[in-house]
Amino acid sequence: HPFQALVTGIITAITNIGIHVLIIAHLTAGMVNLTRHDKEKYFLTASGEKQLFPSLLDPSSRDLSVVIPAYNEELRMPVMLDEAMEFLEKRQKQTPSFTYEVIVVDDGSKDKTTEVALRYTKKYGAEKVRVLTLVKNRGKGGAVRMGTLSSRGKLILMADADGATRFSDIEKVEAGLKNLSLGPENLAISCGSRAHLERVAVAQRSVFRTFLMYGFHFLVWFFCVRGIRDTQCGFKLFTREAALKTFSCLHVERWAFDVELLYIAQCFKVPIAEVAVNWTEIEGSKLVPFWSWLQMGRDLIFIRLRYITGAWKLQSPLKTD
């Protein structure tokens, strides 16, 4: 019958496409990239002296590390850094025992991001502000990972350079972390979330962008992460142990890295809190709506397929080069 032949043809075509996607996902799977160029192993002090970055494998020596990935952020970053430093300095005055560091990771910028960040090193000293300049662009996930692997904090906050999230909302994600049951391994992640703002965002966005947003949310839910409404907010707080456990396994270095990070965390049964934070759209986003969403959609599908096929494996924390 013609109808049966049509159905059989469609099923065969879908099966063939699925097999090809599976093969492509497996064959194109890259390995965890923890290597760094010699220049990326050092930071500059206020006097311009080179010093070696520590390792995430070392014991913590600060209460908090703030990791800020920055790509061509010479214009937007100062506002965020001023706000962050004001908050952190105020906390230190109120609680003298509190120690912190800020690590700005210049992700191969073409502008003066490093020079701008180094002004803060000169102002506050390298014990408080360090700049890690990557030789070439890795992507946001790669930049966050390199900064995290170089941090000294008991807690590690990743925060975007555009200042879209109010920095004082760190108190909210800290509270979210404290409400979790950490267990003997001290594993926990507290994610800032914009999910409560979704209704307003939908009202302000075009139908096409809204469609892309919901499509992305569905792919995240279907393939990777369930129970977290906003995986992409760039304001996440990790215990040092959770950061080591997750970032050591991370493969995706571009926009979808948050999803893989949370997927890894859920595979390891790391407790995760999702906490509403204040968020404002800041002009100058590096995200190109259609192509970035398309790339993220592909990455989401490939993340799951690569773990299913064994191309990627969850592993114990590795030593970095």
TrEMBL record:
GO terms for cellular component: endoplasmic reticulum membrane. InterPro entries: DPG_synthase (IPR035518), Glyco_trans_2-like (IPR001173), Nucleotide-diphossugar_trans (IPR029044). One of its GO terms (biological process) is protein N-linked glycosylation. One of its GO terms (molecular function) is dolichyl-phosphate beta-glucosyltransferase activity. Keywords: Endoplasmic reticulum, Glycosyltransferase, Membrane, Signal-anchor, Transferase, Transmembrane, Transmembrane helix. The keyword Hydrolase does not apply. The chain crosses the membrane at residues 6-29, 211-228. It catalyses: a di-trans,poly-cis-dolichyl phosphate + UDP-alpha-D-glucose = a di-trans,poly-cis-dolichyl beta-D-glucosyl phosphate + UDP. Its EC number is 2.4.1.117. PANTHER family: DOLICHYL-PHOSPHATE BETA-GLUCOSYLTRANSFERASE (PTHR10859:SF91), GLYCOSYL TRANSFERASE (PTHR10859). Belongs to the glycosyltransferase 2 family. This is Dolichyl-phosphate beta-glucosyltransferase. It comes from Kryptolebias marmoratus (Mangrove killifish). The lineage of its organism: Eukaryota, Metazoa, Chordata, Craniata, Vertebrata.
